Amino acid sequence: MPKRLFTATPTKLLNFADCKRKYRYTYLESPRPPKGPPWAHNTVGAIVHEVLADFFGRWPAARRTPDEVVAKMRSSWRSEGFRDERQSLDWRERSTEMVLGYLRDSDPYYEPRGVERTVGFTTERASLRGRIDRIDERPARDGSGGTELAIVDYKTGRRPLTATDARSSLAMALYVLGARRVLHRPCTRVELHHLPTNTVAAADHDDESLARHQKRAESMADDAAAAEARWAEGLTPAEADAAFPPEPSALCGWCDFAKICPQGRREAPTREPWAGLDEPSPVPLDEAG
Ligand code: SF4
Q1: Which stretches of sequence are listed as region Disordered (predicted)?
Q2: CATH number of the domain that 207 lies in?
Q3: Is 182 a domain residue?
Q4: 288 belongs to a structural domain
């Protein structure tokens, strides 16, 4: 029998690396323990992603106007996680300005190669997949006259981003490998489009950097697969706590399960749901919106 591959997204692997208890609560417990309230900064990120996906992926060129963007931001807006109506409306306007600024110089006729495109690839040990915000197809920079792909990820968090962030992102590297596999085009370029500053943090991968990221992903997948196999055997509560221990860190203040995790609450104060609007969270880039 061929060996069954462990299937994972970069977020799932990084959750396992962050904290085994959080992983167990997120992916294994059934029913899943109740999460805390939604985060306002995640609401902002989700709405911005939805509007940009419509703009580049679903709207014809004639519809790609500032008025349509404003109307879409308003109709898509949700107040989940905000302190009150006033804060929500304030952020609706700020977010709308942010999206308009980002789109100001975009060509309305531009058609990306993919929008919210799911890609994946398999190694000898794992099946790795993920959904890419946008895949651009551009003239190849090697003078061949062909085209190459660029992986674009939208970021709405407070922290400005650098080329090192783009290069060190596990998710972006795996997206490169997945896009190559699915779309059969050359691809080395990864770009983090940071909307709050309207800047792009870009990097190019080579075979060595991609191999390094893939090796890291496979190692994480091996560890997660072994832990899940133990879970499937049926663990007592004490055995489950030992196999999936809490791993307190600065991330606990932003963890959805902090309310039911005494060790996490001791480690970091629980944030208000709107804290991430003004405070850069330490949530790793690959897990943040
Ligand atoms: S609060 Fe911290 S230790 Fe507890 S589950 Fe969340 S990340 Fe893990």
Answers
A1: 203-225, 266-289
A2: 3.90.320.10
A3: yes
A4: no
Write out residues with Cβ below 6 Å of ligand 1: 19, 21-22, 246-248, 251-252, 255, 257-258, 261, 263-264
Q: What is the pLDDT of residues 53-75, one digit of tens each?
A: 999 999 999 999 999 999 999 99
Determine the average pLDDT of the residues in 18-38. Answer: 95
Mutate to test the pocket of ligand 1, among 261, 267, 287 (most ligand atoms within 8 A of CB): 261
CB 215 within 8 A of CB 176: no
Burial of 62 (0-12, 13-18, 19+ CB in 10 A): exposed
Query: What's the structural domain count of the chain?
Result: 1
Global pTM reads: 0.94
Q: What per-residue confidence (pLDDT) applies to 269?
A: 84
| Ligand 1 center from residue 262 Cα (angstroms) | 9
Structural domain of 170? 114-213
Nearest to 135 by CA among 184, 102, 100, 206: 184
